[in-house]
Amino acid sequence: MLVLDGRKGPEVDITLGSTFTTPIPADQVVLDPETPLVAPKGCKPLPAPTAAPTAAATEG
């Protein structure tokens, strides 16, 4: 789900599942920044936003 809000900076909120423990160390990340990510089969792109962003959400 994508929710646009009024933030001006590059921050994002991420919701993690109950089995998540910690991120792996940066030196163990095996992504190549020069290689585009490929979406899994069946993944559909989000539609382009049509409404203005709302005020920043509060933690709850």
Helix content: under 10%
Largest β-sheet summary: none
Radius of gyration, whole Å:
16 Å
- Uncertain stretches of 5 or more adjacent residues: none
State the secondary-structure class: little secondary structure
Please count the helical segments. 0
Number of strands: 0
Walk me through this protein's architecture.
The chain has 60 residues and is largely without helices or strands. The protein is 0% helix and 0% strand. The protein has no helix or strand.
Characterize this entry briefly:
The protein is largely without helices or strands. It has no helices and no strands. The protein is extended, with a radius of gyration of 16 Å.
